[in-house]
Amino acid sequence: MYHLVAVFIAALCATGVLCSALPNVEVAPVNTSAAILPRSLSISAFNIKVFGRSKMSDPVKAAQIRDIVKRYDVILIQEIRDITGEALQQLWDMVGRSQFGMVCSERLGRTTYKEEYAYFFRLSAVQMVGVHQYDDGPDDYTDAFEREPFSVRIRPVGGSYDITLVGIHVKPTDAVKEIDALIDVYDDVIRTWPTVTDVIILGDLNADCSYASESDLLRMPIYNQNLFYWPIGFDADTTVSSTHCAYDRFILSGPNVRSALIPGSAGVFMYDKYFGMSYTETLYHSRRIRDGGQHGEVEDHGNQHDQQQCSHHNTRREARKSDKLQVATLFKDGTSTAMVRIRIVMATAAMARLNRLWTSSSINFPSKYRLYKSFEVSILLSCSETWTLHADTERRIPAFEHKCICRLCSA
User: Fold this and answer.
1) What is the 3-state secondary structure (H, E, C) of 90-133?
2) For residue range 320-352, what is the model confidence (pLDDT) as tens digits?
3) Which member of 3, 79, 146, 169 is catalytic?
């Protein structure tokens, strides 16, 4: 049961301008030694209770989730259960594909209970540079994580440095072990992107109360080393239940993000109070689902075929070195469905960045089409010769291309 947690990275504060922050959160002057961004950058993490088609079929709840996503420049969504991907696509439509990009992970989990991560990012504020799925070996309980962290490398528009975001939804009963293993994930993303020194680990770490106490964390390098800063302390309450626990956290590392963090801006957004929601409605939005294969409350389980397919996911994933994004073209279900989604997201973001070109009346259609083939199609179909596709996934590619061509024709 969670509220929303968020941090704000400073911008223009060297000129004495105070940057905006969460409602009711005090903003203090910022360390001006940080590398300056052209505007403040808001980053958040939201564990939505069993996000799927059932929740998005409720117009009121769907609109509230949309409004939450649109508050931030980057938001990590956790506990995505919908195997069809329709709920995520609906949310993307609602926030506006011309305003927000989206990238999602593969389905993760040791059993038939699986989740995905997704990042929504404001196209006017952030450029998506790369994605990386951490691999801790076979899903046979000798691995470190129930749901391996999913990372993105972002570049603030007009900024002078990149930031790696590492999203994680920790298994409650394994919280101590998984949080301790985050130091290996940090080392992994530094090896993956050696030129990026600024890293933010974010998400539902279950880092409090009975799952992981402060004495547990004090024994961990990810907590006790000066390299890492936890801006949300044990005094915070990131739940919406009767408990008082700081489950959801941020871990900052790197000279720029640590010095650019607006003091006092890391906190909790009380969306239940903001929307005037009742306690029952709030629980519907964001109630904790226990890990494991049997969940009586879980929606969007998928059909029997999905469960049979998921039973074969205990083999080691292939090494992911297909291209500069370091994302596998063949994922755990034996197809490249997730890769196609990522490529479509990247091509959509590229189309949006070149919008002035596509809408220019001074460039004729043949020239636009040649540019489209050179830029967009190369992004969309890079390494496609290695893809393994289901028929429904294969149909997404010409459908996306048709949408792009229509955009060129309508200009």
Assistant:
1) HHHHHHCCCCEEEEECCCECCCCCCEEEEEEEECCCEEEEEEEE
2) 322 323 233 333 445 567 777 777 887 887 787
3) 169
